[in-house]
Design brief:
By secondary structure, the protein is mostly helical. The chain has 2 domains: 150 residues, no CATH class; 27 residues. The chain is 90% helix and 0% strand. It is elongated and about 75 Å long. The protein starts with a helix and ends with a helix.
């Protein structure tokens, strides 16, 4: 009985290692799909400790299974780990930039990233399990990803539609009365110029008050009095 248990345990560990290696290959292939110029702009070739920790925490928050696999990779396949963690760091940096510009879009992009990560892991695990079951899981994930893609496309269409409305309004304003528009712009330009001159003048007046002749003339007298006291 013990021998059978040991054999099953050994097979499970071997299967886990195979999944880990396959997953590292999947992440490396995904990284190659990204142009080197974009990757270099997003993350440095070698991560420092803080960046690596942030990438691991990001994975732990949004795809715990990925974080566990990264821990295994770090111990068993350092090169695969470096490739995978750089890819996670790059994705995290990209999502952070999106969050700063557009929190609403960020939620959709984060959801898409999580689904993509689950697809990669499921694809790697499929070789060690039931192929039919893995196919069903992958299909469900792909359908889920397409739903998010559709939401992103609709979001982008609305953004472009809003921009087109603003452009059309600007065109209409310039076409209807370009001279009035020019007069308004001229008033704004001159107003900003006057404000700038006034700011410079106020700053100059403050500097003049700080170092006045009266204040300077008292300084030698105080110094002479101090020397007399010292004697």
């Amino acid at each position: 009985m013990g021998g059978l248990f040991d054999e099953e345990s050994c097979l499970m560990r071997r299967g886990s290692k195979i999944v880990t290696v396959l997953f590292a290959g999947v992440w490396a292939a995904a990284a190659m799909c990204v142009s080197s110029s974009v990757a270099q702009q997003s993350v440095k070739p070698n991560l420092d400790a803080d960046e690596e920790h942030a990438a691991l925490e990001f994975a732990r928050d949004h795809h715990p299974e990925l974080a566990d696999l990264l821990d295994q990779l770090r111990a068993t396949n350092p090169k695969g780990y470096r490739n995978a963690i750089r890819e996670v760091a790059r994705d995290r940096a990209r999502l952070e930039r999106i969050e700063e510009r557009n929190p609403e879009r960020y939620e959709l992009e984060l959801k898409a990233w999580t689904i993509d990560s689950r697809i990669r892991l499921t694809a790697a695990q499929s070789v060690m399990g039931d192929a039919d079951e893995a196919r069903v899981r992958l299909r469900d994930l792909l359908v889920e990803r397409n739903v998010v893609k559709l939401e992103l496309l609709r979001f982008e269409r609305q953004r472009l539609s809003d921009r087109l409305e603003r452009i059309d309004a600007s065109i209409e304003r310039l076409e209807s009365d370009p001279e009035t528009t020019a007069d308004r712009e001229l008033d704004q330009l001159l107003r900003r110029a006057r404000n700038r001159v006034e700011q410079v003048q106020r700053k100059g007046n403050r500097n003049t008050k700080v170092s006045t002749p009266g204040n300077d003339s008292k300084r030698p007298a105080r110094q002479a009095k101090q020397r007399t006291t010292d004697k």
